[in-house]
Specification:
globular; 225 residues; 3-stranded mixed beta sheet; 36% helix; 5-stranded parallel beta sheet
Length: 225
């Protein structure tokens, strides 16, 4: 089997999805390399701390935003790829949310949540958009936004209350419920693990891939990637 390792290396370096297909006795096996998806956490409070840690462990590139210097600091979120101290709408405009991003709105107050939601809705709708808040308060907020002309179909795509309903109570449990929902969104449409012929790699050994691009002698699914 011939593999264009240079093309694979170029795709991975560019943050694009790439894949290798191997033939086995039982059929084809696909080794899929996914780019690091960006999770934008709006609000640097207590839930953001474990959420950032869990999301990084799952391979997300995390950006944390808060308008308070004490909460938007690299020392508070050492695992994050970026920490922004800015007004939420301004930060969102700087970040330029794309359709592949994940956005979690968990600010310290409903007015800030509403500001974040309005700003996101005015741009490209992300792959995942979740917002904290009680069902009653969120429903009233959505009705108000719809009356102001916001698309109800987009509002209905917001995951709120944020996180899967696992009866979470503690800060860490709530963070786990959120990352569980991120995983559910990430894996939507994929086969169950026991039936899937796709092996997904979130962490790419770049030095090994660079070596293979220079000397493509090793072949097969056990080449080390």
């Amino acid at each position: 089997m011939s593999v264009d390792w240079n093309a694979l290396l170029s795709a991975v370096r560019s943050g694009e999805a790439a894949a290798l297909t191997f033939e086995t006795e039982d059929g084809s096996v696909i080794r899929s390399f996914r780019p690091r998806e960006r999770l934008i956490v709006l609000g640097g409070g207590h839930i953001a701390l474990p959420l950032c840690q869990y999301a990084v462990d799952l391979g997300f590139s995390v950006t944390v935003v808060d308008d308070r210097p004490d909460f938007a600091s690299e020392s508070r979120f050492p695992q994050a790829d970026a920490v922004l101290c800015d007004d939420f709408p301004a930060a969102l405009r700087r970040l330029a949310v794309t359709g592949e991003d994940y956005v979690a709105i968990i600010t310290r107050g409903h007015s800030h949540d509403a500001d974040c939601l309005r700003t996101v809705l005015e741009g490209t709708f992300p792959r995942y958009l979740g917002m904290i808040g009680s069902r009653k308060r969120v429903a009233a907020q959505f009705d108000l936004l719809e009356a102001k002309g916001y698309d109800r179909a987009l509002l209905d795509r917001v995951h709120t209350p944020i996180g899967l309903d696992i009866h979470a109570l503690t800060v860490k449990e709530i963070a786990i419920s959120i990352v569980a929902e991120l995983i559910q969104c990430r894996r939507a449409g994929t086969s169950f693990r026991s039936k899937s012929a796709v092996l997904t790699s979130e962490d790419v050994d770049l030095p090994l891939l660079e070596f293979l691009a220079r000397d493509p002698a090793p072949q097969g699914p056990d080449a080390g990637l």
